[in-house]
């Protein structure tokens, strides 16, 4: 067993800063200064506002006066309140410095070595930017029915900072490992039919439905327990017990939130804040549309480190937001229906959201996250973890020794806090006989680059049962290899053929992300504001909103076939003949199921030539982006 070492005032006239569109060239730069607050967002309340507004704005400014700044590659000079440093100095947050944001993709795009910690800091910063912007343009949020205070702003910043605390090693690969590989290994330890029993079904569900969002909530709780001085500091700062519940709900909103979009009014499902604060739950993890600061940061950050272009302007989108009443969504409060309030962007942002943001996300997935080499490396790393895991035991709660996947599914944060990229790297360098198979597999795949060979990629009309497809492919291949013209094709086992499904969408399956968003007309909103004078209750502004019913967005299903022959191969067989036969069988099978061959340009003959070139280069295959 191996134990890892734990070793100026607001003008009363319509001013540019109060421009409701939020995206005109007249916007004062000082009001959206990333660092300065003296003449920025926190210093814009004047005597025209109520005493309550002035008091809350003053408290917020004083609370955030102590701050620290840093130069961020994605957003430029950014700032965070000093109180957040107490969280960043914990082991649980520091752990994210040992987790690459993009996992195996960093071996394809060699500059993409940024971490989960950097992403979390960026998300916290954008959370603050969004909240301070709303309070600047709508100071009525300090009053009834909202009564926002510095506690709400602080909670959102903490949620942004901690939303990935429970993220596993190697980005999302470990999540797939737990759901697919570890679940099968768990069932293999029990008699046949165990999964059909109530006990077995419950245990299997822990594996197949495990997510890092819930793990982040558990890690946040563990961080507060393991570091009482952190919680004590937050309480001294002014937070209350209900605020910690609120932070957890911001990180992982209750599943019942989806019911709020139905035609019938339902009960408000959250405990951290009342229904009047519904719009706050759209900032860190947007349950309505997915348009949140988490994505805004990784769009910008990942594209920067990948060397790709991101056409979405998150800062412009944030500055267009207002809080408005959504009469489509209601909850039942004290026996009466009450409308929810939502974040409403300027209608000018509709195309930006639908095209720029959604397409940026789809492009990042297609070009990077689901790049064929990244998928191959993730597959091989899952195999490495499968060989390694039985020999890694981590002390958990009460001294119980646990494997990595057990620590994850049991949500034992005492053990899971040590499951990061550095743990695996340490085990790969530990000279122990039990770990040698895993080390050999890693060096073969990652050091000597003997990785699976890309055969072809096909676009499908609908998802398929790929376990069944793979078995049928191998059976057809082995039958055809007996023909004289394929005499040098080796017999294939099921494990030598890899079918990797790829889903390319816009984040909400086939739904348009704009479908559930309430847009507003900035000119009408500005006229309403002028009519209201000092009342400034623009959240009830009538006839300015626009409900976009969405457009059908195509969700693409693809499957990539890889050839991973067992080595060494018998001299009587050749890799080229085996590869070509597999490619022929795969093409024929997919065409019979209405699959469309995805080619990188060129005729079928040229595609065959590409295949031969890929095969010839497979022994020296580089892990950099190819030009195919």
What does this structure look like?
By secondary structure, the chain is an alpha+beta fold. Helix content is 42%, strand content 11%. The chain contains 22 helices and 13 strands. The strands form five sheets. It has a four-stranded antiparallel sheet, with helices on both faces. A three-stranded mixed sheet has the order 3-4-5, with no helix packed on it. The model is unreliable at 1-40, 600-606 and 617-628 (pLDDT under 50).
Biggest β-sheet strands, sense, barrel? 4 strands, antiparallel
The largest beta-sheet arranges its strands as 9-12-8-13
The gyration radius over C-alpha positions equals 27 Å
Summarize model confidence as the mean pLDDT. 84
- Total strand count, please? 13
Contiguous runs where pLDDT drops below 50 for at least 5 residues: 1-40, 600-606, 617-628
Give the number of helices.
Answer: 22
Helix content: 40-55%
Gap between N and C termini, in Å?
44 Å
What characteristic shape results from the CA principal axes?
A: globular
What portion of the residues fall into strands of 2 or more residues? 5-15%
